[in-house]
Amino acid sequence: MGTVAVKALRTGHVGLNVTDLDRSLPFYLRVFGFEVQAEGQEEGRRWAFLGRDGRLVLTLWQQSDTPFPTRSAGLHHLSFQVESVDEVRAAEAVLRELDAGFAYDGVVPHGEGAASGGIFFTDPDGIRLEIYAPTGADTAPAPGGTAPTCGFF
After folding, report:
1. Where is the VOC domain (predicted)?
2. Any idea which fold 12-63 has?
C-alpha cells in the first residue's frame, strides 16, 4: 500500500466546538489578537471564522452542550508559537486578567533543559491551549521531569 503524494502540507485551520460563542469570541479575540473574518448569527447555527493578516486560523462552532472532556479521545491541546518569551508573558498577563485557568504557574520549559516553553491554560470551555516561544523558557524548572510538559496536564 503506497502513501499519498502530498508535497506541501500544513495545517489549514483548526475548528473548535464551544458552548457559548458570546463568551468564547471575546476570549479568543483578546488573547490571540484575532479578527473576525466571517460570522454566522442564525439561531442554532452560530459560528465565527477568526484569523490574522487575512489568513484563517481558527473556527468556533457553537454546537456543544458541555465543557471539553479532557478524558475523551480527541484534541489534546492547541498550541500557538510566538517569537519571544516576552510575548508569552504578555499573553499570560491578559489571561490572568481574564481569570483563565493555568496548568502550571507561569512560563515553563517544554522539558528539563529545554530552551523552548510557554504557558498552558484553558479557554472558557476547558479546551487546553498553549502559547510558547522557541527560546527563553529555560530559566524555570520543568514541571513534568522527563515527560514533555505539554503532554500530561
Report:
1. 10-134
2. 2,3-Dihydroxybiphenyl 1,2-Dioxygenase; domain 1 (3.10.180)
